[in-house]
Design goal:
About 15% of the residues are buried. The protein is mainly beta. The chain starts with a strand and ends with a strand. Helix content is about 10%, strand content about 35%.
Amino acid sequence: MPIGTIALTNNSPNVVGTGTTFNNDLKVNDYIVVVVGQIAYQVAVKSVNSNTSATLVLNYDGPTASGLAWNPVSPATLGVLSQSAAADTARAFRQHQRWAENWQKLLTTNGPVTINNSDGSSTNGIGWPALDASKANKTDLDALALRTGTIETRTAALGSNTPPNGATNANDILTTGFFTGAGDSGTNYYTPYNGLLCFMRGEPRGSQIQTDLANGRIASRTRNNSAWGNWMVPMYAGDFGIGTPAVNTPVDFSAAFISSANSNGWAPAGGAGLQSSYANSRCSQLWIDTAQRLHVRFNMSSSPLASLATSPWVTMWSSGNTTVDASGFIKRASPVVKLFNDGNFEKNEESEGATVIREGVGVYRI
């Protein structure tokens, strides 16, 4: 490695060294390689004047700079480097040409194309014009012959399509794709007025999905053994009285959490509860009112909102509506006020609102 640094002056052939030994490290016709401002310069040496002075064949055309690290390169070595650079440039040009050809194939070929890779291998694909969505609003994946292992992609209808063969029965849609609803004449749809998405994995398996645009609910069903199952809808907040602090008046005998702000002619009082059934007109209902009383009934009427007379409620005994006498027997509570020798007192439901004043020893005013 050469020692010292050099200084170069713009538009001058002079090279000035500092701590250099040009007589040992540099020869006539050698090249000095130096980096100035992140740009590499190769300058040819005309003469070596001393250990710290040399003259260039041509004036240096870069910016004036000093304290530069430098390297001498012989003409033979520079020739090898130039050949390597030329080979790299040719390789990059060939790659660029290959990319340009590949892009031209993709952009202009209406059908299968072969992409040539830099390692000599090739990849088969489809030209973009063949994917033009304007062709009958569908992409014929059969024509593309896309296959991966044992999974084969079949024709998929994309866009707005009427059910196949004008079918109005959703059970007859057995083709993968997006389809419009059948309207008033539609049967076996979750909602016949909205689109239907169908996936088929070869008869007899498949699935269908619909979204009700009126409320945003999503329904789905599956097909197995050549028969479609029932439409299934995920539970949303508020369904069956779950997830919202709102009144949930029962509309049928389905199991649900139920509530009412007041009796409304069917509940024993304002409160909330739950119901469960095994058939229509066979429903057990449990209710806790705002006074913490527990009521139950087994409703065998035609409505979950059967009147109190049609399907009476039974009120359960609890510490809120009973009392235990001195003998330990449970009795129905009448208004009861328990007095204690420290002047405190305790009321039950029936005596709610009563006040107690201790007048003296053994004397209380209620």
